[in-house]
Amino acid sequence: MATVNWSDRAVVQTSGLYPYVPGKPVEMLLAEKGLKEAVKLASNENPYGPSPKAIKAIKKAVGEVHRYPDGDCGELKQALAVKHGCGIENILLGNGSNEVLELLIRTFAGHGDEVIYSQRGFIVYALATQAAGATGVAVPEADGLSHDLDAMLTVITKQTRVICIANPNNPTGTLHGMIALQQFLDRLPRDVVVIMDEAYYEFVADELGDTVNELDHPGLVISRTFSKAYGLAGCRIGYAIADSEIVSLVNRFREPFNVNFLAQRAALAALDDWAWVMARVTDCKQERDRLELTFDAWGILGGRSFGNFVLLRHTHASRILQMLEDQGMIPRPLGPYGMPDYLRISVGSEQENEQLLKALESVLRAL
Ligand SMILES: Cc1ncc(COP(=O)(O)O)c(C=O)c1O
Which residue, of 246, 272, 298, is where some domain finishes? Predict the structure, then answer.
């Protein structure tokens, strides 16, 4: 049978593009190591699960999944518009904020256009840029971890269409405050789209303030997700707030029913359980601070994190990874970000964090 070289047939931007590598699934580690139990701390998920109201809403909605969802997400848009004090025409819903990011980049950057992001910024920006056929401009961090906003300004050209900033950033956990962000926005050309990726916003709401209403730039797009603080990562739902024309342009590329019915119902219920969600955020931050204090005392803290994860830094990080996996713990190696000495570890429940610290203590002793 004649074989076809499919890579010659695929669009040119597939060359050199690699699929996103997610955290190792629990089932895979169990099979690899012959273990009975494992704790995944590799994808910055919420260890407390979704709000009880969201679980109830999903159960109620299950019987209706033979119907298509509301392709416009009208009810959810209305709730988000009230929450953020904006119009429904300013809201874009996605199958996770990941889809929102990809759609935005595809809408505004194509062949010959440039997208600027931080070298150790969330890796999806680089992947989405290449998939769109645009040119990525990766800017090194000032201190190895934090977006260098001044340096990002210096690489702007006539071809710059989009700038992506994760605040807090994944995987480095760094945060820029409102004043620094506004000073950055003030120095930009007005027609550049800035994606302010706030996937971890709820963890910094107190220190950062209301970015949706206080930051000002015509091309500002603020993206948020239900995957982290709201504990709905498996539902796949995120959103962005932007100028209505930006939203309407992106909607041309959007698949008609991109946000499924269960996700819409769960998100609405979770929004209605804000106090519960924020109480879990407080729990998570307390646990994060406890982990960071211990890491610091052990000389392995990789830097302060503002997200729901902590950074471990050690010259034998890959050995530590293996030894933790042997004990059923799954952290995330940061080699793909050019950070081979680092592991990113999601904050788990109190019990999971205890397990982690116990395992880590024995690993460090055995090194
Ligand atoms: C900074 C950042 N942005 C966006 C996402 C995408 O999240 P989701 O597609 O689950 O909304 C993640 C996920 O880890 C992230 O860390």
Answer: 272
pLDDT of residue 19: 82
CB 298 within 8 A of CB 358: no
Residues 38, 77, single domain; the answer is no
- Residue nearest atom 12 of ligand 1, based on CA coordinates: 199
- What was the pLDDT predicted at 38? 93
The whole-number pLDDT of residue 324 equals 97
Note the Cα 59 to chain centre separation in Å.
Answer: 27
Count of all residues that appear for the chain in the document: 367
Question: Could you tell me if 211 and 324 lie in one domain?
Answer: no
Ligand 1 atom nearest residue 233's Cα: 10
Kindly report the protein residue whose alpha carbon is nearest to atom 16 of ligand 1: 170
Cβ burial of 182 (10 Å; 0-12, 13-18, 19+) is middle
| 89 and 77 inside one domain | yes
Per-residue pLDDT, 23: 87
Task: Summarize pLDDT for 177-235 with one digit per residue, the tens.
Answer: 999 999 999 999 999 999 999 999 999 999 999 999 999 999 999 999 999 999 999 99
Check which CATH number belongs to the domain holding 307 and give it: 3.90.1150.10
The residue to mutate among 44, 46, 95, 97, having the most atoms of ligand 1 within 8 angstroms of its beta carbon, is 97
Residues 284, 265 share a domain: no
Residues within a 6 A CB radius of ligand 1 = 44, 96-98, 122, 166, 170, 197, 199, 225, 227, 233, 238
